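Known limitations

Files may contain more than one protein. Parsers should not assume a single record per file. Below, a two-record file is shown to illustrate correct handling: read the sequence, read the token line, then continue until end of file.
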Amino acid sequence: MSAYMTPEGYDGYRQVDLEARAAAASPYELVLILFDGLLDELARVRGHIENKRYEQKGIALEKCMNILNGLSSALDYEQGGELVQNLARLYDYCIYRLSDISVTLSLEDLDHVVRLRKVRRKGWEGGEAARRGC
């Protein structure tokens, strides 16, 4: 961030950039945007916990849970079979862990959620590459 841009200005710029990316994205790309947004927000949670900014930590955790709920609500339970059921359980587990982290402030548990999300993001990319024949 430049010396000329305030944190609020940066957040506004980021929001406009996110909205532009989302408007032009395919459904596959939208999920990647959500995964990336979740990982960014999880990094913010870590910073807030480390710096004892507990109010901001709560706001960031709520954003994380909203993203996970959004991903879960977008699942096609009728067509997805066992894979969708497993994803739904994973999203629920992550929400549960984040709720617990809100109280315990456990960075180890936060790292566990981050690892799960990174693995899932890589799996999403790999699945799309396979679908496209890349």
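...continuing to the second record:
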Amino acid sequence: MDTMLVDWCARHLGSSPVEQFFGVQHLSAVHGLRLADGREVVLKVRGALARHVACAVVHEAVWQAGIPCPRPLAGPAPLAEGGVEVLAGGGEGNEFVDARTLAV
């Protein structure tokens, strides 16, 4: 399992993944993870955009209104943090990008 995803879950969800039960990558990457505390979560990783914050606010409001959808637990937040570039697979084939430019 990608150590950046493990670190992200520990930082933002308070529990590390113990199993990946699905994963798909095309224009973004989607990972279904089982955490050590028993929760099953889905992480979507894609290029960070300013509009993602507004999307998360709307998604939370939809969940709060009782519309059936998964509750946002965290994010959007950078996949990697710090002052040093960290390369990660992008969404297009073998392309690599700075993980600090990707949001979960």
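Parsers that stop after the first record will miss the second one. For reference, the second record is described as follows. Helices lie at 3-13, 51-64.
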